[in-house]
Design goal:
alpha/beta; Rossmann fold; 5 helices; 20% strand; binds guanosine-5'-triphosphate; binds magnesium ion
Length: 190
């Protein structure tokens, strides 16, 4: 299965027509969204990975197998201005109102757990009735006990949230952990 890049867009209204079930990758800047797309597709050059937070400012879309993958711009980088934060909110809300997406995958850094800005994104999903699933990233950077504690804290929060899917997926793009679970969460047929 070869991923196909559908384009880079600045505004949700420009996105190509939905022809396949669409899954959105959402999360803080630098959390590992682009790396996860590369893990899932098995091609390390599908999505651009960088060390500079805030690098993926556009909405990048890919077609892979029987689904569409949308890499949304990362939020919450330290230098973000108020205008940028407002722009991000506007993009997310417009995206959610325009696209009949199957599920949002909300990526959370295993070393940090939920931060207030992640909870804001979850509230946007809950309000719009968008199903979302938590994917914990960079699990190679912490120990087993610490990871278990992060996942417990995540479960405690999502149980209160109407649109959250209870299963939490643990991944490491660098160690190639969790690929099968993410593919299954996206309904990608192998
Ligand atoms: N150790 C480790 N590093 C990772 C993992 N996933 C991503 N990284 C690193 O984290 C940094 C950011 O990864 P990206 O995939 O570009 O993150 P992003 O969420 O797409 O970032 P933006 O596009 O800026 O929003 C890069 O240096 C990656 O190599 C992982 O599972 N383990
Ligand atoms: Mg990125």
């Amino acid at each position: 299965m070869i991923p196909k890049f559908l384009g880079s867009f600045t505004c949700p209204s420009q996105l190509p027509k939905t022809t396949l079930p669409e899954f959105a990758l959402v999360g803080r800047s630098n959390v590992g969204k682009s790396s996860l797309i590369n893990l899932v597709t098995g091609f390390s050059k599908t999505a651009k990975v960088s060390n500079t937070p805030g690098r993926t400012r556009a909405i990048n879309m890919f077609e892979f197998g029987n689904v569409m993958l949308t890499d949304l711009p990362g939020y919450g980088f330290a230098q973000a201005s108020k205008t940028e934060v407002r722009d991000w909110d506007r993009i997310l809300n417009s995206y959610l109102s325009l696209r009949p997406i199957q599920k949002a995958l909300l990526l959370i850094d295993s070393r940090r757990g939920f931060m207030p800005i992640d909870l804001d994104a979850m509230t946007a999903f809950d309000r719009s009735g968008t199903a979302y699933q938590i994917i914990v990233t960079k699990t190679d950077k912490i120990g087993k006990a610490e990871l278990a504690a992060t996942i417990d804290a995540i479960r405690e929060e999502i149980i209160k949230r109407p649109a959250a899917i209870p299963e939490v997926i643990a991944t490491s793009s660098s160690k190639k952990i969790g690929r099968g679970e993410v593919l299954a969460a996206m309904g990608i047929l192998k």
